[in-house]
Amino acid sequence: MTGIDYTTPGPLTDLSAVPPAALTGVPADAEGIIRLAHTLIVHPSETSGLDLPEERFADNQLRHADRIVAAVLRLEDDPLHVPRPAPRRAVGTCRNFTVLACALLRWRGIPARARCGFGTYFQPGQGLDHWVVEHHRDGRWVRSEVQFVAATLVPHPEDLADGLFLTGGEAWAAWREGRIDAARFGVPGTENFGPAEIQGNAVRDLAALNKVEMLPWDEWGRMDAAYKGETGADYDELMDRIAKVAAGDDPADVTGLYSEPDLKVPEALLR
């Protein structure tokens, strides 16, 4: 395990403002926490027929885990472990599922981190924009689905096999080495596919490794220029460095690279 303390919260995963009573009954084991987080959020794509008021979809924009919990408690003030039907869950993306699980794991003192990248198990031959959580167990990082932990997309969603999920850095390295087609990697339901989408997730994943888990559409540094095709070889080389550092998982390298102006999340985005 790396020297970064993944048992403690970052700026977006601090649950100290959550009423203690709400956390009574939260499981003590990683898989139990992941399965609990799965039951607290509903993805926008799964809200058809639920007749939710339009303002509920603003929960999709919540960056902070304690605010996600607050959104859940506004709908039902029972402790989080009490089962909730889909209409009584906060609306959120795969990132919200993941960040909530990550926050609860850290609250229980379990080393955890969010990862931003692409799932290869949704559509054959495609890598689709996605987030998963990692927790440290038996000397290794275990990657787990949160949004689809109860589904049958893969044999063991609680312990994803190698290659099923690629972080942004892993996808970038695979494209640079000719092992994937970048045109098949991007955001489902949009035209946003290609190398720039991989670059964006590589930057977000580096931030997440530094315990800063941003929204899927947050942009900073040269990300907007990259999406517009206005960056060049130097930015590609910066992505190469992200891929290498993320794969190496050395804490000094992870924090050192993140400190560069093009990569560090501005304080204004953390409010």
Automatic annotation (TrEMBL):
InterPro entries xref list: Papain-like_cys_pep_sf, Transglutaminase-like
Short name of any one Pfam family annotated for the protein: Transglut_core
Domain Transglutaminase-like: 89-143
Protein's recorded name: Transglutaminase-like domain-containing protein
Organism of origin: Dactylosporangium siamense
Lineage start: Bacteria, Bacillati, Actinomycetota, Actinomycetes, Micromonosporales
